[in-house]
From TrEMBL:
Residues the entry annotates as binding (6S)-NADPHX: 250, 300, 350, 425
Name under which the protein is recorded: ADP-dependent (S)-NAD(P)H-hydrate dehydratase
Pfam family, one: YjeF_N
Source organism superkingdom: Bacteria
Residue ranges constituting the YjeF N-terminal domain according to the UniProt record: 10-209
Gene symbol of the encoding locus: nnrD
Length: 484
């Protein structure tokens, strides 16, 4: 599992560690690790020229010390700094160490245009979102074929990973120290991070992390593998209330994925047209209401439909929500959420659905737009979790799973091809199966998101994937992850 800790938690751990070390020791370790990564990338790419963008704080100092190591190795290094004093040393001292430091008045544009590797040391965990004015021109002038290594985090991005930021550095690789930080794994900022490399500086953090990311090894720990003594009821029965006369595909996708994820038994509640299709596609299904261990309510569900069978179907959906059973609420089912639910609940909106839900449940806060949600995804998911008592899984390239309290999970396992109609119905089926097996909404949501993303990749590695192929890839993906 990858764990990320906030800047405050990292700073306080650093203070404790530094008390027992010589001054400058931690920064020396950070710079050494950073230089090793840069040296390896330069060798791999056949590059020789390095330009450091040096900011006013210790992040700039890390980058300058790393450049001094690289200059020692024979790489040609130049730094550019703005209208601020350097955090450590004087330009003359850096020149003596092999790193000439240019000011904004010097010609920094020529060396930057020729750089093979750009070391972004403008801002680190002390940064506020946005770049210093001088640095905007530097970042704009970074040549497209240079390899950009961000020191600790891509400058200009929000270190807390809360707010999406226009502009700022987009790195090919981010070299961070000791542990990952929220900026590296949260949806508002993760796309700017590139490859993430964590350098050991001898700093350990304890206690719960602020953000966790499950990796493949966690699947074996969390997945509900049946025992010899299990039967179909003990493994988990899932009820799916989904689809309608106009939306017939969603229940087929959801039920196919749920059965493929390893349910004991599946019940489906729908109107006549999708019921026929589900029967044909998923012969394992039992049609109609009955005893279950968890419900999925909502894929392809039209709560305003007056078609034959709709009223009875909606009665089952409402009863599921009123029950004390775990419920996953997706798509149309979100319109049935009226407020807090005490039983385990997993809401699985995308950004537009979350905006609509918040606008309806919290009218005093005014209308919430999709853009507001994508600009600050974690804050909006948290608000929905606190209004409903549910765990909120916010779908996206990086999927957030936010419980009402405690550590957040963030998964980014899916190729961009997964952004396709029906993929959400498959996710609901996989997560629903995990809820029925007894997993918490947090585990079911994050594990389901991981398996869903890996299944999308395995369905057609490197190419387009349709939702039905993704659903069919689920059983093989689970086997692959459990037996690797
Ligand atoms: N504390 C430690 O022991 C270690 C810290 N390290 C490095 O230190 C960094 C943190 O250093 P600092 O706390 O000096 O913080 P930064 O280097 O992130 O910079 C903070 C400075 O930038 C200014 N600033 C912040 N946001 C700005 C904005 N948007 N526009 C203009 N100016 C802005 C602040 O006023 C402050 O002067 C880490 O990211 C890491 O690179 C590493 O050397 C490892 C050890
Ligand atoms: K940086």
């Amino acid at each position: 599992m990858l764990r990320a800790w906030s800047a405050d938690r990292v700073r306080s751990a650093e203070r404790d560690l530094m008390a027992g070390l010589e001054e400058g020791e931690l920064m020396a370790r950070a710079a050494q690790g950073l230089a090793e990564v840069c040296s390896a990338r330069l060798h791999q790419r056949g590059g020789t020229r390095v330009v450091v963008l040096a900011g006013p704080g210790n992040n700039g100092a890390d980058a300058l010390y790393a450049a001094a190591h690289l200059a020692d190795e024979g790489f040609a290094c130049v730094a550019v700094q703005g209208d601020w004093p350097l955090a450590v040393g004087e330009p003359a001292a850096w020149l003596a160490a092999g790193v000439p430091v240019l000011s904004g008045d010097d010609d920094w544009a020529t060396p930057l245009s020729e750089a093979d590797l750009v070391l972004d040391g403008v801002l680190g965990i002390g940064g506020r979102p946005g770049l210093p004015a001088e640095a905007v021109a530097w970042v704009d002038a970074v040549p497209p074929d240079a390899y950009v290594v961000a020191v600790d985090l891509p400058s200009g991005q929000d270190p807390a990973g809360e707010q999406a930021q226009d502009g700022g550095v987009y790195a090919d690789e981010t070299v961070t120290f000791a542990v990952a930080k929220p900026v590296h794994v949260l949806p508002a900022t993760e796309s700017a991070v590139g490859r993430l490399t964590v350098v050991d500086i001898g700093l350990e953090l304890e206690g719960p992390a602020d953000v966790e990311r499950l990796d493949f090894a966690d699947v074996a720990d969390l997945w509900p593998v049946p025992h010899a003594s299990d039967d179909k009821y003990s493994r988990g029965v899932l009820g799916v209330v989904a689809g309608g006369e106009d939306y017939t595909g969603a229940p087929v996708l959801c039920c196919t994925a749920a059965v493929g994820a390893g349910l004991g038994m599946l019940r489906y509640v729908g109107t006549p047209a999708p019921t026929g299709l589900v029967r044909a596609a998923v012969p394992e299904v039992v049609i109609g209401d009955g005893r279950v261990q968890a419900w999925v309510v909502g894929p392809g569900l039209d709560t305003t439909s007056r078609a034959r069978g709709s009223k009875a179907q909606l009665d089952v959906a409402r009863a599921a929500l009123a029950s004390d059973l775990p419920v996953l609420v997706d798509a149309g089912g979100l319109d049935l959420v009226k407020g807090r639910r005490e039983a385990p609940t997993l809401l699985t909106p995308h950004a537009g659905e979350l905006a609509r839900l918040l606008s309806r449940l919290d009218p005093d806060a005014g209308e919430t737009t999709r853009e507001q949600v994508t600009g600050a995804p974690l804050a909006h998911a948290r608000r929905a979790a606190s209004l409903t008592g549910a765990t909120v899984l916010l779908k996206g390239a990086t999927t957030l799973v936010v419980p009402p309290e405690g550590t957040v999970r963030s998964q980014a396992d899916a190729p961009a091809w997964t952004a396709t109609a029906g993929a959400g119905d498959v996710l609901a089926g996989v997560c629903g199966a995990l809820l029925a097996a007894g997993l918490s909404p947090l585990d079911a949501g994050s594990l389901g998101a991981l398996v869903h993303g890996v299944a999308a990749d395995r369905a057609n590695p490197g190419g387009p994937v349709r939702a039905l192929a993704l659903a069919h890839a689920v059983p093989g993906t689970v086997a692959h992850l459990l037996t690797r």
